[in-house]
Amino acid sequence: MALSNNRRRQRGGGGLDAWPGYVDALSTLLMVIIFVLMVFVLAQGFLSVALSSRDRALDRLNQQVAELAELLALERGQAGELRSALARTAEELRAAATARDRSLPSCGRCGTSATG
């Protein structure tokens, strides 16, 4: 038996066998890499859900901004129409006041006889 052990040692079977430690280190490294990849995949999933909900909210807000811009344009149009109507009314008022002032001197004699 001692002779068979000596023969194994002479063939390279003796000494320290590093193969199981090497396999353990590689398998541990592989498990760590898989774990890190799983963490990244989960983080990517959560971030994509968060970004998609933000995209939907952003789309809603953009739609509201477009509606408000439309309403603002309508209000500006109405304000312009009201300004022009006010200008026409003011011009009509000036014309009426001018016509009144012209007709007062000719009717001035009528007003004094009626009051007196």
Mean pLDDT: 85
Any idea what the shape is? rod-shaped
For the termini, the CA-CA separation is: 160 Å
Radius of gyration: 49 Å
Helix content: over 70%
Task: Give the H and E element order.
Answer: HH
Q: How much β-strand is present in the residues? A: under 5%
Main beta-sheet annotation: none
Number of strands: 0
Which structural class fits the helix and strand makeup? mainly alpha
Distinct helical segment count: 2
- Contiguous runs where pLDDT drops below 50 for at least 5 residues: none
Structure description:
The structure is a single chain. By secondary structure, this protein is an all-alpha fold. The protein starts with a helix and ends with a helix. The chain is rod-shaped. The chain contains two helices and no strands.
